[in-house]
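Q: C-alpha cells for this one, please.
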Amino acid sequence: MPKMKSNRAARKRFKLSGTGLAIRRSSNLRHGMISDSRNSKRKKGHNVVVAPADQARVRKMLGS
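A: Here is the predicted structure, written as C-alpha cells:
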C-alpha cells in the first residue's frame, strides 16, 4: 500500500499543536493596516487556533 500524501500547500500554512489542534497565522496582515489600532495589529501578530468546524478537514490534509 502506498504512503499517504499530505497536502503540501496545507503543510506550509498549518501546524499541529501539542494537543493536536491545528494552528494558523492571523489574516489581514498584508496591507491597509494603517487604519487598524495598535492593539489589533499586535493581536494579529500571533498564531490562532483553526475554527472547530474546519479542524477535521485541516488535520486530514496534514495526513494525521
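A few notes: Residues 52-61 form the longest helix (10 residues). Helices lie at 8-13, 38-44, 52-61.
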